[in-house]
Fold these 4 entries.
Entry 1:
Amino acid sequence: MIKTADSSALKHLKILDLTRVRAGPTCVRFFADFGAEVLKVESPDGVEANEGVIGARDNYDNLNLHRNKRSLTLNFKEPEGLEILYKLVKDADVVVENFRPDVKHRLKIDYETLSKINPRIIMGSISGFGQDGPYANRAGFDQIAQGMGGLMSITGIPGQGPVRAGIAVSDSTAGNYAAIGILIALLEREQSGKGQWVQSNLLQSMIGLCDFQAARYLVDQDIPPQAGNDHPFSTPMGVYQSADGYFNLGASGNGQYYALCDVLSRPDLRDDPELQTLKGRTSRREFVNNELNKEFVKQTTTYWIDKLNEKSIPCGPIYNMDEVFEDAQVAHLGVAVKVTDPNRGPIELVATPVKLSRTPAAISFTLHAKGADNLELLKSLGYSEDDIKKLQEKKVI
C-alpha cells in the first residue's frame, strides 16, 4: 500500500477496511484522516460478498464517510480472492470488519485464522449485539440499538412515546469505541509484540453512551423517564422561547441563576426561598420555566444570547444545519474542509473533530473509484498483468 493522506500521525500503519454501512467506516475514517494507509476492500460488480459502499458512490454521505481511502475490488469467497486477502493481511497492522459473527467464520476471515498468518495483526470487529450470546447472529441496525439500549425511552416529550435520535448515534459510537480500542491495542503491541482482537457492538455502545442514565438505574434502581428538553436534575436548563424562536439555557447553578434573575429584572424569582436551591427550583420546574418564558418572549433570541453571555450565563442558539456553518465560531474551528472530488468538483466535508498540534488530521481526497487501485496493488503483491486479467475474467477482482 502507498501513503496517500497528508497527515503524518499514523503514516506507519497499514489498515484493511472490510467494513460497510456506517459503524465500521466511521472507525476506519479516523485512521485514514490521520494518515494511515487505508485500503478499502470492496466486492467486484455483481458480487455481494462485501458491498462496502451503499448507494451512489459520490453521494454526500459516501464522500464524507469514505475519504482518504484507496479501493481494491476482491471477492474473497473465491480461493484466489482469499489468497490475495491473506497476502495483504501478512503485511497489514489492522483489519476492521463488521460482518455478522457467523459470516466471518464462514468466509475464513476470523481473528484466529488471520492471527496465524500475522501474529501482530489487530482485528477490529463491530457487530450489532456482540460476537457471542443469544443475539450474536441477529442483524443489528442503529435504530434497533437505540431502542434496546434505552435511548429512545428517555428521548422526547413526556407521554409522546419513544423517539429516535436524529443521527445514527449507536453506529457512530460503536465505530468510535472500536477506534479507541484499536489504538489501545496498537500501544500494547509495542510492549508485547502481539496483536489482539478488539470488539465493539451497537447495543453495548448505546448503553455506554447513556452513561449516567444507565448508572441511575443500576445504582439506584430508578428508571429514567422522558424529560423532553429539560435536564433530568437541573433547573433552569433546557429550551426557552424568545420573540422569534427558541434558544438553549443552562443556568442551574446558584450563581448563574441569580445572575439570570438580575438580567431579567426579576428579583422575586431570585429572593423566593423555595427557588434559592437547585433542588427547590427543580421541584417547581414548571413554575420557573413559565415565569422565565414570560420574560424571554419580550425580546429576540439574539438579544438574549448577547445579554446572557455578557453575564457568563451558559446559553446558545438552536440552529438549522445551514445556520450551523454560518456561525463565526464554527468557521473559526475549520469544521468544513475544502476538497476536490473528480466528479463533483470542489466540495466541503466535515472535519475530523480532534486536533493535534504537530500532526493534525487531513482530508486529501474523496474515495477512489471502485477498483481504481487494483492494478498497482496486485502488481505489488507479485501478480503479472496476465494474472490480473485472469482474475478479472473470473470476477475475483
Entry 2:
Amino acid sequence: MKKTMLLRNLLFSAAWLLITTAATAQEEEKTKVMEIYGFIMMDAGYDFNQIHPDWYDVVRPTKLPSYKNQYGTDGNTYFSVRQTRLGFKNWFKTGLGELKTQFEFEMFGTGVDAGQTTIRLRHAYAELGKFGAGQYWSPFMDIDVFPNTVEYWGPTGMAFFRNIQVRYMPIQGDTRLTIALERPGASADQGVYDDRLALDSVHGRFPLPDLSAEYRHAFKWGYIELAGIVRKMEWEDQNPTGYDLSGDGVGWGLNLSTNIKIGPRVVFRGSALYGEGVQNYMNDAPVDVALKNTGNPSKPVEGVLLPVTGLVGFFDINWNEKFSSSFGYSSIDIDNSNAQNVDAFKKGQYAIGNLMWYPVKNAMMGVEFQWGDRDNYKDGWSTSISKLQFSFKYNFSQSFYTKKND
C-alpha cells in the first residue's frame, strides 16, 4: 500500500513538473512586441477660491489672480475627464539591437487649447540601443519625483518638461547616464515697458540646441540623481532707434533629486533646483528673460535671465493593498528684475494630501485636498486657493506577443 502511494506521488510530481516545464518553455518562447495601455479618469471637485477659468481642474499658482476678483467669484464646482490617456508601445528586434517606440496622448488641452478637452501629444519617441529621438521627458527633469496625486499639474517647484530631443545613453538601467540635445525656446516679459513700440522690433534667437544631462546612481534604498542644463539665448533688435536693445545670455540649471525608501511602505520623493533662465523647463513658472533698468542713459534697459529656485518634498504611503496616501509641499521662487510690473509673479506654493482606495484590480477612487498660493513681485498682493477633488480612474492594457523565432 505504501509503495502504491509512493509511486502515485512520484507520478503526480513528475506530471506536474512536465506541465510546469512545458508552460515555462512556452512562455519563454514568447516575446512582447506591442502594448496598448491607458486609463479613463474622471475628476469632480470644488474650487473654494478663484483661479483662471482655463485651469479650473488643477492647482497652478501662476494662474491664480494677480489682483482682487480678477477671475470673478469664489466657489465653483467642476467635472473633468481631461486626464484620460491612451498609449502604444512597440518592441522590434533589429541588427543594431532592440528598437523601442512609444506614442502616447491625453485629453488635457494647453496652449491655444487651454481649458478644452482635446487630444494633446505626450510622447512620440523611439530608442535604438543607446540612442533615442523624439518627444520625451527632458533629462533635466526627474519624473520619479512626481508624487501619487490625483491633481493633474503637480508640484510647482518641479522641473517638468516633455521636449523634442536627440539623446545618447552610454549607461542604461537602474544606474544611468543620459546626454541630450533639446529643442530650444524661451519666453520674455517686457514689464513696465510693454507698451513701448520700440520693443516690437526685438526678436528672440536660439543659435544652438539646449544641452542637458542626467546621472542617476541606484542604491538598495532608492537613488540619487543630478541633472544639469546649459542653453544659449539671444535677442536681436531688428530696428534699433536711439539705442540697441540686442543682448544674449547663457541659461543654466542644476537639479538634485532622490527617491528614498523608508521601510517597506513609505517612499520620500524630493528635489532641489536652482538656475537662471530655465523657467520653461519648470512645471509652473512664467518667463525666462525680463528687462532690467540699468541707469545708463545710452542703454537704459537690458534683458536679463531670471534666477529661479524650486523645491519638492512628498511622502507616498501604501497603507495596505487597498489604501494609499500622498502628502507634501513644493515651492518656486523667482528673483524678479527691477523693470517688471509690480504684480508680476514672484513665488508659488503647492501642497496636497489624499487618500486613495483600490477596491478591485485596475480601479482607483480617491479624495484629495489641494492648496496653492501666489505672491506678487512688489505690490504686496498674496492669494491662495483651496480645492477638494474626487477622482475615479480605470486602467486598461493589452499586450501582444510573438514567438522568439518568428
Entry 3:
Amino acid sequence: MNPDVVTIGLGYIGLPTSALMASKGMQVYGVDVNPEVVKTINQGKIHIIELDLEEAVAKAVNVGNLIADIKPVAADTYLIVVPTPFKGNHEPDISYVEAATRSVLPFLKEGDLYIIESTSPIGTTEKMMELIFRERPELKGKIFLAYCPERVLPGNVMYELVHNDRVIGGVNEASTEKAITFYMQFVNGELHPTNARTAEMCKLTENSSRDVQIAFANELSLICDKADINVWDLIRLANKHPRVNILQPGCGVGGHCIAVDPYFITSDFPLESQIIGKAREINNYKSFWVAEQIKKAKHAFQLEHGRPPAIALMGLAFKPNIDDLRESPAKYIVQKVLQDAQDEDFFIVEPNIKDHQVFKITDYKEAAEKADIVVFLVRHKEFVGLELTEGKVVLDFCGV
C-alpha cells in the first residue's frame, strides 16, 4: 500500500512535520540522503534535539505510521523540505529543491499534490512546475502544486507546527485549495490562501523584518558603547513608550532563517533592498566587533598583569537554550578569537551539546571559575544569575 505522504528531507523541519502527520494517523514515508539519519529514525530515535520530538517519532515508528528511507516511493502528496544553501556571493542555491523534485518525478500521477516548504527565492515553485511539466508533459493541469513556508521556533517546533497560522500559495486556485485541505488534517492555526509568489516572499519578509529590527538594536549597542551608556537600560527605558518595542541586541544574528533569508531578497533585488541589505551588514559587523572587543580585553589584561589571561567563551548556539549552531555568530566569534590565540587558556562552553568536532567543550561552572575574562555570547538559562568571583573581567554581549 502506498503511503499518504512522502517527505523529502528529515532535518529540523522535515522530521517534526513527518512525526506530526504520522501522529494524526497518516502513513508517512520520510526520505533523507543521509543513511545514518534514516537508520536512527527507523529505530524510533532522533538525530536532533527538539522538545517532545523523540516521543512523537518513537510512537509514530512503533505503530508503523512513519518509515524512513533514502529513496522516495509513490504517494498522493509530496512535501519538499530540503535546505536551500548559498553559492557564490550569497546567491541562493535551489539545487537541493531541484534534486528533490527530480527524485519524485517518476512517481507523480494525476491528482497528486506537490508542496515546497523549503525557504526559496521568489519564483521557485513556478520553476519547479516548469521542470515537472517539461519532463512529464502529460501531467500538465492534472496535478496540484503549492508553496507553504514553515514559521516555527527551534525548541518549540512540535507545538508551533500545530498552532501557528500558515500561508499557503498555489500556482492556481485549485492548487491552493487542495493544499489547504491537506494542511487542515494536522494544523490548528488559521490557513491563509494566496498565490505561490506571495507565499515565497512572505517567508522572506518575516525573517528580513526580524533582521532589520535586530540590526537597529545592534546599531544602538555600538553607539552606546562609544557614548558610555548601558544599552540594556536604554532599551528598557525607551520601551516604556507605548508605541516603541526595540528588540535586544546580541553578538550578531544566526540560525538558518534570519541570517540567511534576507539574502534571497537582496540577491534578486539589489537596488531596491537598501534597508534589508544594510541590516545584514550591521548584524555581520556586530560579530566582528565583538571578536575585536575580546581581543582588546585580552591585551589590556596582559599589559596590566604581565601574563596571558584565561578566557571563558560562554555559548556557541545561535540563540538561547538550543543546540543548533547553524550560522551562529557566537561560533564565528570563537573561531575568530582562537585564530588570534597565543599563550592564553580558552574554555569554550555550550551547555546544550556534549562534544564538538572542533572545540573542546568545558562545563560552564568550571569555565567561569577558572577564567580571568568571562565572555557571555549567548543568553543560555544556565548563565543567567551565574555567580562570579570578584575581580573577573566580564564582557556581556547578550544581556546576561
Entry 4:
Amino acid sequence: MITESSFQIKSIPFDENYHPSTDTRLTTNFANLARGDNRQENLRNVLRMINNRFNDLAHWDNPKANRYSVALDIVSVGLHINHDSTNSIFPLIEILNTTIIDQKSNQRIKGLAGNNFSSYVRDYDFSVLLPNYNKNKPEFHVPPDFGYLHGNLFKSFVHSSAYKKNFNKLPVICLSVSTNKTYCRTDNHHPVLGVEYRQQEHSLTDHYFEKMGMQVRYFMPYRSVAPLAFYFFGDLLSDYTTLELISTISTMEAFQKIYRPEIYNANSVAPQSYQPSLSHQDYSLTRIVYDREERSKLATAQGKYTEESFIKPYHARLEQWSASYSA
C-alpha cells in the first residue's frame, strides 16, 4: 500500500504573498497568520521578527545586524494511496524548510527542514482518537498503540528517496515545552542553543515524537525567556551547523511568541525550576493577529476529516502495513 514511490513533495514560498492551499491544515501557524484583514501585515511582521532574531543570534561579523535573512518554504507531503481501483492522494505532512541568505557574500545557504510540523493524522490521534478512548473513564489513559501508525508513516517518509532527493539532512522539529511538566536548568550551555533544561518524565508529545524515531532535548537560547523542545535524529549538537540551528531557533521562536506569548513572550525569564503556564499574566503581545480559539476548533474538524477520508477507508491496510513496517 505504501511504497518507495508513495510520497509526493511540493513546496511554495512562505512570504507576504502566501495564501493557504486547499490541502493545508488551517491550524498550522503559517496558515492561521495568512487569513483575515491583517494577513499581509501579519506575514510581513513575522518575517521581520525571524530575520531580526537570526541576526541577533548570528552577531559575529555582523555589526549592523542586517547581514542575514531567512527564506521559508512550506513543504507539503502527499501520500499516494493505491487501494483496489482507487488512486488518491492524502495530504499527509507539512513542514517548513529554511534557506539562509547571506547579503555579504551573496550566498544562499541551505537551512533545515522540519521546524514547524503539521500532520492531519496527528490531529486525528489527539483530537478524535484520544478523547474517544477516554470518554466516560474516571482516569486519563493512552491507547496501547497510540502514535505507532503516525510514527511509521513519518519514518517511512524521512527514509524515502523523495526526502533524500530534496533535503541533505534529517529534520529538526522545534515545539513549545509542555505545560504539565517541570523543567530544570542544567550547567550545560551551547553557544547557539543556549542553556539546557531537563525533566524527569517525558510528556505525551515527547512520547509521540519518540514513535516517529526522534529524540528530544530542551534548550533556552540566548535572550530567550523559556526553553524550546527540539526533536531530532542523531546528534543535535554535532550534526548541524551553527547557521542551520539559528534558522530553526529564529523561525520557531517567532511563531511561539505569537502563538504562546504567556510562555515565550513573558516579561521574566524562566527560573531554574520551571513549569510553563498558559495562565501566566505577565507577558507582552506581539502586533500579529492569531486566532487560538479557531485553531482548537479546526484541530477537531481536521481530525474528523482524517478519520473519514483516511483512517476508516484504509484501516485494515494501514494496520497491516504499519505492523510489518521497519525503518
